[in-house]
Structure of N-acetyltransferase:
Amino acid sequence: MQPKISSLADRPDMLERVVGMADSWPEFVIQDLVGAAHFPRIATELPEYVLFAEDEQGEVVANAYSVPFALGTERRGGRLPANGWDAVLVWAFSDLRRGARPDTVSAISVSIAPKAQGRGLSGVMLSAMRDNARARGFREVVAPVRPNAKHLEPHTPMEEYARRVRPDGLPEDPWLRVHARAGATIDSVAPASMTVSAPLADWRRWTGLPFDTDGDIEVPGALVPVRCEVERGYAVYVEPNVWMRHPV
């Protein structure tokens, strides 16, 4: 049975249930300070760009967040930022504050409730996000994609990983492949899409790892190693993403 998809603009009564939906993001990923400052604003300030799916029992099983922004300005020049996810969130809310007219929609996240994973909902929500952008007059959706199998190869350069294809020409990574099947093409790698810098005590709490040696630490769920500086008392994770463009 196809899930019922709505936006928070149409169903504001669902705000708490959508925002509170269980997900499977690693704890350290949600500690990105730019995301912590801006992501929660999407649901309240841009509710028409927050979509959610309900199953036959009315339970929220997936959500998809996106933001409109102005990419084609003289300063930005149509170039997708190397700072990826962080930059596009900052741009979107800067444009909203200034009243700048957006020309592009960026995907921000697609989340599936753990109990509903494996049903193809990621592709359904991606399609709904594209349809929503088209209905609002946009011609393109871009996405700073977090390849969902890259964590298995944290030392492989993202540029190399992202360009791998199967014999059928589709990307080897499953989430990149979902985007490609929807018509997206790879634009570039965003080498510093998200940054999490925190004291070692926080990293130990988030990961259960000792963080007691200098250098690169492999962390479950991380796309690249986390850089640990024991004497200085902190560790830094700089996540690369893959920019993909969807004509709509």
In short: The longest strand covers residues 185-199. Helices lie at 15-19, 33-45, 84-98, 121-135, 158-162, 174-181, 200-207. The radius of gyration is 18 Å. The chain has a mean pLDDT of 97.
